[in-house]
Amino acid sequence: MEKYLEMLTFMRPAGGVWEDAFVEKYLREPHRPIEDGYGNQIIDVGSKPNIVWSSHTDTVHYKGGLQNVIVTKKDGHARVAPGQKLSNCLGADCTTGVWLMLEMIEAGIAGRYIFHRAEERGMLGSTWLAKNAPEWLKGIDAAIAFDRMGTTDVITNQCGNTASNEFATSLSSILGGAYKPSPNGVYTDTKAYAKIVSECTNISVGYYRQHSSQESQDLNHLKWLRDRMVQFDASTLVFKRDPAAAPADYDPYDFMDWDQSQ
Ligand SMILES: [Zn+2]
User: Residue 219: inside a domain, yes or no?
Assistant: First the structure.
C-alpha cells in the first residue's frame, strides 16, 4: 500500500503540471504506454484484449501540488492530513482506479488499460477517444471503470442503460463480496463508449464522499479488491447488451455538471 499512499499525495487538476508529473512517474517511466492524440495513456496486456479497464489520471483538486495523507487507525481509511490548506479533497477518485490497474498490469491480467484524461471536466479524454480514435474499442466486449464510491456496486445505468443485468450479475459473482448490479450510476468515462461497446460499467472501489474535503478511502476494501483483481478470470463474463440498440436520444457524451461525477 506504500506506493498507493504516495500516489495519493499528488493533487492534480486536469492538464496541469502535477497531473503530468504523476503520469510521468507512475505510467510513462515504468510502462511506456501508447499516448493517443488527447493524452490518454494506453497499455495492452495480452494479445487481442476484449476488456477495457478504465480510470482517470486527473483529480478534482483546485490546485496542483503535493498534500500529506494520513491513515486513521480506527476505521482503516486514508484521508487528507489536518491542516492541508491547499487541498480540497483526497483524490482517491481516481487514484484508487489507477493503482488497481497498475497492480493488474503487474499481475499480467489481460486487457486494454486506458488511463483517461480530464474525466472530471466531463469525460473529455474518453469522449475524444470515442469520437476520434474508436479503433481502440474494436473487439472490446466490456469497458469496466474503477471509479465508484462504496463497496457494492456494479453499475448498469449511466443516465441510461449502459450494461445488461446479465453482465453485471456475472461480474458481481466473479468479484464476490457484496457486489451486485446497481442502476444508480451517474457517469464516468465508460459512458462515452456506450454506443460502441456492449457492456459499459463502473464498479465500487471503496472511496466515500468524493469531491469533498471529507473524502476517504477504505484501505481494507481496497486490499481485498486488489487481491480479487490480480487473479481476475474473465471467462465467465456474459456479454448481452447491444450497443447499437441504445435509444437514439441517448447521448453518451452528455454530462450534467462536472462536479457531480460518479
Ligand atoms: Zn472519478
Answer: yes
Distance from the alpha carbon of residue 122 to the mean position of ligand 1, in angstroms = 10
Mean predicted confidence (pLDDT) in 1-26: 97
- Cell numbers of 179, please? 457486489
Cα-to-centroid distance, 23 and ligand 1 (Å): 16
Cα(158) to ligand 1 centroid in Å equals: 13
CB distance 203 to 146 below 8 Å:
yes
Whether 75 maps to a domain, the answer reads yes
Percent of the chain with pLDDT over 70: 97
In DSSP notation, 177-190 reads TT-EEES-B---GG
- Where in the chain does DSSP place strands (E)? 10-11, 34-35, 41-45, 51-56, 65-66, 69-72, 77-80, 111-116, 142-149, 153-155, 180-182, 199-208, 216-218
Q: What is the mean pLDDT of residues 87-91?
A: 97
Total structural domains within the chain: 1
Contact 262, 208 (CB under 8 A): no
Torsion-angle region of 36 (φ positive above 0: left; ψ -120 to 50: alpha; else: beta): beta
Domain coverage including residue 122 = 2-255
**pTM of model > 0.85:** yes
CATH number of the domain that residue 207 is part of: 3.40.630.10
DSSP state for residue 120 in the 8-state scheme: G
Instruction: Report which DSSP code applies to 88.
Output: S
Asked whether residue 262 is assigned to any structural domain, the reply reads no
- Any domain includes 261: no
Which residues are near ligand 1, the ion (C-beta closer than 5 Å)? Answer: 93-94, 147
pLDDT for position 260: 47
